[in-house]
Amino acid sequence: MKERRLSPGGVIMLFMPVVFIYLFSTWPSYEFYAPNESQLLISLKKRTEKTHICDEKEREAFMEEIASKPKHMQVVHRECGSRDRVPLELKIWLDGVESLSKVIKPAGIRSDGVVFVYEKFTFKSGPHDIRITMRDFKDNPKIKVHEFKEHLDFQPRKVTLVSYTPETDALLIHK
Amino acid sequence: MEAESDHVKEMPVEVAKAVKAKKAPKYIPWILRPGNYCLVFVQEKFNWVFTPQLNPLYFLGSITFLLFWVALASGIYLFLFYEMGPDRAYNSVQYLTEGQKYYGGIIRSLHRYSSDGLMVVILIHMIQVFFSDRFRKYRWVAWVTGAAIIPVIWFEGVTGYFLPWDEVAQMTSIAMSQIISTLPISAEPMERLFAHNDAVTPLLFFIMNYLHLAVPCLLLILAWVHCMRISMPLITPPAQITYSILAALLTLSLVKPAVSAGPADLGSLVGEVSIDWFYLGVFVIFDYLDLAGGHALFWGGVVYTGFIALPWVIKDPKRHEDAISTVPQVDVKVDLAKCKGCPLCQQACPFEAMILVNRKDGKNYDTQAEVIPAHCAQCGFCVNACEFGAVSMGGWNKGTFHDYVTKIFTPAPGGNGESIPTSIAFICERSFNLEGFLTDDCMRVATSPDVGVMVVPCIGSVSPSLVEHCYEVGSKGVMVIGCRGLDCHYREERRRVHLSKEDGSHKFMVESIEDNRLRIMLVSPLQIEKIRQDIDEFNEEVKQGVAS
After folding, report:
1. Which of A97, A111, A104 has its CA nearest to residue A164?
2. What is the Cα Rg of chain B in Å?
């Protein structure tokens, strides 16, 4: 049996994978976004209205029903009406062109959670007209439509985030 | 012709069947053959450079373990200095890289390059296992767990790339969260975690850091299952290879220390960044093909499922029709009437297919041998290991082996002009292409009719008592011809490494046998002419030895 010895050629060959790692651990680099690209990001969560809201009469009947039950069955936090909520309609126009029209369902098996929105648009940097509308998707003309309409100058490789908070109850640019 | 059929008729049934086998073996499925040839060629080149004992291609599994330990040890050090939180994470990693340049920086680089090496070695290991047809049948567990290890290691790498919280981490997090969001895990899109800088909380770093620590535990479990069905797995490479790899990693760390990209800023888009292609290349491919998370997951899943299913997709060639091995490779059976419950067969089995269980037939032994058919490779190691002839494969037990050898050295009744061989060669049917090498009845070497032949599934099935029997029936010399280096299909060589450690002695060697009458030849499948010459040379040597 040959002596177990590593030859100089062997050492060089062992270094071959090292050269391979040396190269491909950083090279070639990759450009994910071009220098003249910008991004509009809409990321928000909103609790939409319930599909059915009790009127005064229904509320009274509900309270009576609760009161008639034994004490341990009177759930404190139970509310009148349905648990499930309506979807959210989101529309986005970029430079006057409708780029997105979407109806997003609330989270949860019973659709009783909040609506999550995460949409992004990448385009060339520079001035752009942005219009975003958002409303609870319900056949009710009185329902509030949230609108964001701005002429914005998008800086190269910058992300402009439009968000919503219940406190302000408006679509705003996140600072 | 008449004499030949009489000659066959007189043999035991199993021996007679073996004599009729005439075709060359085609034990590797046709789809793997071109790749197998290339693989053998590369292995031979490596053998030439490294010697078969130090060929790193035979130690890829153990090199993987070595790289894992390096990554783990270096990772523990990095963990001690790592701070959680967007700014703190970046600064702590920068401190390690710049502030502790000659130890922290090197250890970070070792961590990085050993992880890269891990991925490279695993992929080469996988290609080698695939083209050497070592992923099917009794090896499917190793294949499936190996296939599971790849994405787990990849995920480990991705979580690691999150931790420095630089631009690469930013790109990785967004791309990864986009893929995860398509899974029905959470209602909230995971990308929202990276919508703006304030959204990234220290808690997220805490989770990612501990995920990065927990995944290696899963890897160790998978590695354990990966090796579970093989006895005496090699998990440590030879010292020379270990030191060479460590030196190579250290050199690489000094020449090109791993550094962070610019700090992550979720208010900006990631431009041109250096990519670690071994872990992050997949994100580049998805970005280049413009594949959204769902598509990436779907196509990744399709490729991965096909990959896992390969052991069941690629079928055996018509093994038994083409088999050249004298011993048929079929189910192994244990004859309880002869079994003494000793551990010889269990120790011989390289795949833990032979187990000892409590005695069931009432005999006065504690245990009895039992075969697990799903684990059995039908290598025949146990058959000759059993001194009592209790273990058999296709009707062949120790006694049948001896009968066959006896027959080779017995003149045919009536005489058909054939001389009695001088010596005998036990040839592993996988060691090289035997087509045209043997006579039609596969009982002699075609160019050296003086040499009788018994083709075996693996030289591991040749026992010392069989070699002694050869001398008893008149063989002047015995050749045991098997695969080179540590490339035995049934891991015989690995067992030898464990049994004989550094001295390289063989289990075939017994004190009663003179060394010069036994020759172990571990041959290159690409040098058939040399094998012929070596056989002739040895045969001449033993002839002269007898004459003198």
Report:
1. A104
2. 29
Helix (H) or strand (E) holding A13: helix A8-24
**Which pTM value belongs to this model?**
0.82
Handedness of CA B317, B322, B326, B327 (dihedral sign): positive
Query: Which residue on chain B is closest to A1 by alpha carbon?
Result: B504
- Per-position b or e across B506-532, b if 16+ CB within 10 A of its CB: bbbeeeebeeebbbbbbbbbbebeebe
Give the number of other CB atoms < 10 A from CB of residue A21. 25
- Pairing relationship of beta strands B518-523 and B477-483 according to DSSP bridges: parallel
d(CA B196, CA B309): 42
Do residues B485 and B493 make contact, with C-beta atoms less than 8 angstroms apart?
Answer: yes
Per the structure block, which two tokens stand in for B343? 């551990």
Q: Count residue pairs from A and B with Cβ separation < 8 A.
A: 137
Q: Start-end ranges of CATH 2.60.40 in chain A? A: 37-49+85-173
Find, in chain A, the residue whose alpha carbon is nearest to that of B506: A1
**Closest chain A residue to the Cα of B504, Cα to Cα:** A1
Q: Residue B72: helix, strand or coil by DSSP?
A: helix
Nearest CA-CA distance, residue A76 and chain B, Å: 27
Contact A30 B273 (CB under 8 A): yes
Residues 10 to 69 of A: which have CB under 8 A from any B CB? 10-11, 13-15, 17-18, 20-22, 24-35, 37-39, 41, 43, 45
Residue in chain B nearest A25 by alpha carbon: B276
Q: How far is B267 from chain A (nearest CA, A)?
A: 5
CB-based contact, B120 to chain A, within 8 Å? yes
Q: Are B516 and B545 in contact (CB under 8 A)?
A: yes
Does B249 contact chain A (CB < 8 Å)?
yes
Fold annotation for B59-262: Cytochrome Bc1 Complex; Chain C (1.20.810)
Q: Are strands B391-393 and A126-136 parallel, antiparallel or unpaired?
A: unpaired
Interface ipTM > 0.90: no
Digit-by-digit pLDDT tens for chain A (175 residues) are 444 455 676 667 667 778 888 888 888 888 989 999 999 999 999 988 888 878 888 888 888 888 888 877 776 666 777 788 889 999 999 998 999 999 999 988 888 889 999 999 999 999 999 999 998 887 777 788 889 999 999 999 999 999 998 888 888 888 7
Query: What are the structure tokens assigned to B144, written together?
Result: 């499936």
φ, ψ (nearest 5 deg) of residue B23: -90, 160
For residue A27, list chain B residues with Cβ-Cβ distance below 8 A: 274
What fold does the segment set A37-49+85-173 form as a domain? Immunoglobulin-like (2.60.40)
> What are A37's strand-pairing partners?
A124
Q: Are A38 and A94 in contact (CB under 8 A)?
A: no
Q: What's the gap between Cα B332 and its chain centre?
A: 22
Instruction: Compute the nearest-CA separation of B175 from chain A (Å).
Output: 11
Contacts of B81-89 with C-beta under 8 Å, sequence gap 24+, read B82/B163, B82/B209, B84/B202, B84/B205, B84/B206, B84/B209, B85/B202, B85/B205, B86/B165, B86/B197, B86/B200, B86/B202, B86/B205, B86/B264, B87/B263, B88/B202, B89/B163, B89/B164, B89/B165, B89/B205
Please answer yes or no on whether A26 and B274 come within 8 Å at the CB atom: yes
Domain boundaries, given as residue ranges, for chain B? 2-26+322-330+394-547, 59-262
